[in-house]
Write a structure and sequence with these properties.
Layout (H helix, E strand, L loop, with lengths): L7 H4 L16 H12 L25 E4 L4 H13 L5 E8 L2 E7 L2 E6 L8 E6 L3 H4 L13 H15 L12 H14 L9 H10 L5 H20 L8 E5 L4 E5 L13 E5 L1
Parallel strand pairs: 1-2
Antiparallel strand pairs: 2-3, 3-6, 4-5, 6-7, 7-8
Helix pairs in contact: 5-6
């Protein structure tokens, strides 16, 4: 679903769009859909016109999974909330690529999957309970483990700055660095953490990216996202819970489990994924 025309800076990040069509008056998703049809004619690919706000409340009932790309935080939380309110369970995933950095969030509400058998241990059914995006980002920073990736905090700072200044994601430049550092100071103080929690260099890299999305990083995020979608739909294999981050500086993907805030100490799981 998309309601915006194609933009050359966005079109240039996709391997699905031929160079000669970059200046086309068609939307980005329409161009992608035409290429995807050529990849596998047996799969029915369509593009829904307009925006979700224009659709009836029961529109999402037609889907098992909803994936939201780069968008405002309040929009992602809104869609996540709609997925949770629907009668049939709808899985929600969001992805954001900012230059060489990326983030994926997953909310499967309650999910049952088959754990693969190991040696003398037979396969078994496992259950996972997820929190919403709104609940996850409400977690107190001073109660998260010290090893939590700094990219988690940096993304929250960028979202806060964009929302407070009525900016769309990616509508930032290095000229905003001083203001973003002020946002970091305010958030860190309110969360009981020092400003050094999020290095200047990391915020500098996010601002330098502006609206650009690096194709190799998009491919990595897309691969991880596709892998998780297969797990969700098949019910086989343990899915990520609930954040995935990628930073080429260390060449590894990192999963972080950020639970909903409560009155009990947070015991969080994190793991590295070789890319």
């Amino acid at each position: 679903m998309e309601d915006a025309p194609s933009v050359s800076t966005v079109m240039n990040t996709s391997f699905l769009i031929p160079v000669e069509q970059i200046e086309s008056d068609k939307s980005f998703l329409t161009e992608c859909a035409e290429s995807l049809k050529d990849f596998n004619p047996m799969v029915h690919v369509t593009v829904e016109k307009g925006s979700l706000e224009e659709k009836p409340d029961d529109f999402l009932n037609n889907f098992d999974v909803v994936v939201v790309g780069r968008s405002l935080l309040k929009y992602r939380m809104h869609v996540n909330s709609l997925c949770r309110k629907r009668g049939p369970k709808i899985a929600f995933l969001s992805v954001d690529c900012r230059g060489p950095l990326g983030e994926i969030f997953i909310d499967l509400q309650t999910h049952t999957y088959v754990l693969k058998a190991k040696e003398n241990v037979p396969h078994s059914l496992q259950n996972l309970v997820y929190c919403s995006l709104e609940e996850a980002i409400a977690a107190r920073w001073d109660r998260l483990p010290k090893k939590t990736t700094k990219l988690f905090y940096a993304m929250r700072i960028m979202e806060d700055f964009e929302q407070s200044n009525s900016r769309l994601p990616g509508q930032v430049t290095l000229d905003d660095l001083a203001s973003v550092l002020d946002t970091r100071k305010r958030l860190c103080e309110s969360q009981g953490m020092p400003e050094t929690l999020v290095p200047d260099k990391l915020l500098h890299r996010l601002l330098y990216a502006e609206a650009r999305e690096h194709p190799p990083v998009c491919a990595i995020l897309g691969g991880i996202l596709g892998q998780e979608l297969l797990k969700v739909l098949s019910g086989k294999g343990e899915p990520l819970k609930n954040f995935f981050f990628f930073d080429p500086m260390d060449g590894k993907g990192i999963t972080e489990e950020i639970p909903r805030p409560d009155d009990t100490p947070i015991i969080m799981q994190s793991a590295e994924i070789e890319i």
